[in-house]
Write a structure and sequence with these properties.
Protein name: LysR family transcriptional regulator
Family: Belongs to the LysR transcriptional regulatory family.
Number of domains: 3
CATH superfamily of the largest domain: Periplasmic binding protein-like II
Strand content: 15-25%
Structural class: alpha/beta
Distance between the termini: 70 Å
CATH architecture of the largest domain: 3-Layer(aba) Sandwich
Order of helices and strands: HHHEEHHEHEHEEEHEEHEHEEH
Keywords: DNA-binding, Transcription, Transcription regulation
Helix content: 25-40%
Strand order of the largest sheet: 4-3-5-12-6
Radius of gyration: 24 Å
Shape: elongated
GO molecular function: DNA binding; DNA-binding transcription factor activity
CATH topology of the largest domain: D-Maltodextrin-Binding Protein, domain 2
Pfam family, one: HTH_1
């Protein structure tokens, strides 16, 4: 029986998941020429190119696509047999977790998760940083452990939805024109305070959620919920928020929370991670806290 270098499985998986020899070599902590030599071995073994260069990426051939789930399963079985896989104890972990999160999640939703992390792994350090427009590089290079962002915001990363909510309109209790209901005409004629997507000033509610959002008269753009209170409480300006967030954040004696006068797609948040951390036992534990925790915020109006 022909002997097969089992290390080639790890090299193949890294190339497949990174789609780039330089990134795969960095992930494996070997030189790019060395990885190129291993790729040649793989090609010789399977008599197929396996990966074809297109622009700046390596795209897998049909043979590579067939091999990936087989190699991935083999890697998973071997990894799970190692002692460190079974010996991982959160209470003994002193890792520093870096989580990139939107302001809306870090101020209202994320505390639930952070409390759970601190409870299960009290020696860990948790660092929350702002979202950047392109998180793919930082998370690939393991500068970031997880990203919490709008669903579908990072299509190149693995993800799972963790939270969603209905929307409502928020306005002052003293609003001069809006009482217990808001009409579509009132909604579109009013001045809106818009919550932007942190550092890159993109509206968090887009035409994907409803074409109505593109027709709003935006008077002010803010990227922190903390800045909304005085603006809404003391003016006839309005804002649109997830119901649970509005209930949790605003003073009910000073605002009205009203149903939107049109249909829309409910916004949601997802947790994102890179494929190179998919089988990492510590990262798996962290993801499970996000995906198993019931994120409940009151959404009653």
């Amino acid at each position: 029986m022909k002997r097969f270098n089992l290390n080639l499985i790890y090299y193949f998986i890294a190339i497949y998941e990174e789609g780039n020899l330089t990134y795969a070599a960095e992930r494996l902590n070997i030189s790019q020429p060395s990885l190129s030599a291993h790729l040649k071995q793989l090609r010789d073994e399977y008599r197929d190119l396996l990966f074809v260069r297109k622009s700046y990426t390596l795209e897998p051939t049909p043979v590579a696509n067939d091999l990936y789930p087989i190699f991935k399963q083999a890697h998973k079985l071997v990894s799970h047999s190692l002692p460190e896989t079974h010996d991982f104890e959160p209470k003994e972990c002193s890792y520093t977790f870096r989580i990139a999160a939107m302001s809306i999640s870090s101020s209202v939703i994320l505390p639930q998760i952070l409390d759970r992390i601190q409870e299960e792994a009290p020696e860990c350090v948790i660092e929350v940083v702002n979202i950047k427009e392109d998180m793919a590089t930082d998370i690939r290079e393991k500068k970031i452990d997880l990203v919490v962002d709008l669903t579908n915001a990072h299509p190149t990363l693995l993800s799972q939805e963790i939270w969603g909510d209905e929307l409502c309109m928020v306005c002052s209790q003293k609003h001069s024109q809006i009482s217990d209901q808001v009409t579509l005409e009132q909604y579109l004629s009013a001045k809106h305070v818009m919550l932007t997507h942190d550092n890159y000033r993109v509206n968090q509610l887009t035409e994907f959620h409803s074409p109505i959002f593109a027709d709003r008269k935006v008077a002010r753009k803010l990227n922190s919920i903390a800045d909304f209170s005085d603006t809404i409480y003391n003016s006839d300006w309005i804002a649109t928020f997830p119901k649970g967030v509005a209930n949790a954040y605003f003073d009910k004696d000073k605002i009205k929370l009203l149903e939107l006068p049109f249909e829309y797609i409910k916004p949601s948040l997802s947790v994102y991670w890179h494929s190179n951390r998919n089988d990492d036992i510590v990262n798996q534990w962290l993801r499970e806290l996000f995906t198993s925790e019931v994120l409940t915020l009151s959404s009653e109006i």
